[in-house]
Amino acid sequence: MKFTINRAAFIKELNNVQRAISSKTTIPILTGLKLVADDAGLTLTGSDADISIETLIHADNPDNQLAIASTGAIVLPARFFSDIVKRLPEDTLTLDVTEGFQTEITSGSASFTINGLDANNYPHLPEIDATDAVSLSGNVFRELINQTVIAVSNQESRPILTGVHFTLVDDQLLAVATDSHRLSQRKINLPQAASAMYDVIIPGKSLTELSRMIGDDNPDVEMRLSENQVLFTIGDRYFYSRLLEGNYPDTSRLIPKESTTSAEFDAKALLASIERASLLSHESRNNVVKLTLDPETDTATIFGNSPDVGNVEESLTPSELTGEALEISFNPDYMKDALRSFGQTAIKIAFTSPLRPFTLVPTEDSDNFVQLITPVRTF
Q1: Domain residues for 40?
Q2: Of the residues 164, 170, 235, 316, which has the fewest C-beta atoms closer than 10 A?
Q3: How many Å apart are CA 361 and CA 264, to the nearest integer?
Q4: CATH number of the domain enclosing 192
Q5: 299-345 residue pLDDT tens
């Protein structure tokens, strides 16, 4: 196996595939990067058994400057190989596999020889032959991930909550995540009804890595399912992830249908205020920020307090405030995550009582996105 390739084009795809490679895997060969050269081009594969990423560098794309002198396959130690490639002196590199899986990498006057492994021992990627695919624009899918993955649990004691629950019925895709203290739910109406129904839980860590692979210029993202795997296709990149097994809790009943107090704020202005209040709340053990709402005077006040450092108080002017007077405390970090997910928009916050969860929705298109936060008892 021997090929020459443009180094920048190679590094771009190498960085994507490396997202799936972990040094902590229990299968030694998975610490390596698999390279396969054939007539179509060069295929790179990385995996940690939970996530697998495969990408094809086309031989017929002149930007890649890919010339395959002889076909073949090899597995190379990913970390060493990546460090070598990124420090080579010239714009192109040549990789040549000789007998005994010895691999020579040359670029200009630099030449490295590293030991490879037999690619036949590399685990096969899952075969997903499902024809039913859900297709979304890259930007929409990345937004959906970023808006929901913030609420997944980091506690392995309830593994089911470390994933995002995806359901697809007719033309509506619903994604929900909760760690039992907060919840994020996003609906997307597809242009046409899907022929299949989905009810799957995808690990939050997988989705976070996937969102980093979706660039601003990316084409549509296609999602296909098999029994215990999901495949996302982004152009010539394939992202496989295992699914979590089990039944996700029924979250629909957690979202209150009515409220006693509601307020509208600019999300960015409220976020800035919460960030200021949390400067002090982070110094105290309980990390709580308090919000008081008084519809009679049309005022909202935020308090942050640390017995060791001091306190902060800031008045806000909501664009709309209705209902009963209210005083409620919450974790500011949950609130900041929720507010960031709305971006530059106006939001409506609906409260039912000081100890009941409250919801945040955008003032426009409020049916399709909701964040829910459980308050903190301070008395």
Answers
A1: 2-121
A2: 170
A3: 10
A4: 3.10.150.10
A5: 999 998 888 888 899 999 999 999 999 999 999 999 999 999 998 89
Domain boundary among 91, 121, 151: 121
| Parallel/antiparallel/unpaired status of strands 261-266 and 289-294 | unpaired
pTM summary value = 0.91
Q: What is the H or E stretch that residue 197 is in? A: none
Instruction: Map tokens 């890919």 to a residue.
Output: 66
User: Which residue is it, tokens 């990124």?
Assistant: 86
Phi/psi for 101 (5° steps) reads 65, 15
The CATH number covering residue 336 comes to 3.70.10.10
Q: Are 232 and 164 in contact (CB under 8 A)?
A: no
The 10s digit of each residue's pLDDT in 214-229 is 877 767 899 998 878 9
Query: Residue 105's closest CA among 204, 169, 33?
Result: 33
DSSP 249: P
CA 331/CA 284 separation, integer angstroms = 12
Residue 251 parent element (H or E)? none
Cα Dmax for the chain: 83
Number of structural domains found in the chain: 3
Contact status, residue 335 vs residue 373, Cβ threshold 8 Å: yes
- Tokens 């030991």 sit on residue: 115
Partners of residue 324 on adjacent β-strands: none
Beta-bridge partners for 263? 321, 349
Cβ distance 96 to 7 under 8 Å? Answer: no
**Measured between alpha carbons, how far is 292 from 20 in angstroms, rounded to an integer?**
46
Return phi, psi of residue 26, to 5°. Answer: -85, -10
The residues, ordered by sequence, that sit 6+ positions from 268 with a Cβ below 8 Å of its Cβ are: 339, 344
| Helix H or strand E encompassing 192 | none
- Whole-angstrom Cα distance, residue 147 to residue 160? 19
Instruction: Estimate the crossing angle of helix 267-281 against helix 332-342, to 10 degrees.
Output: 160
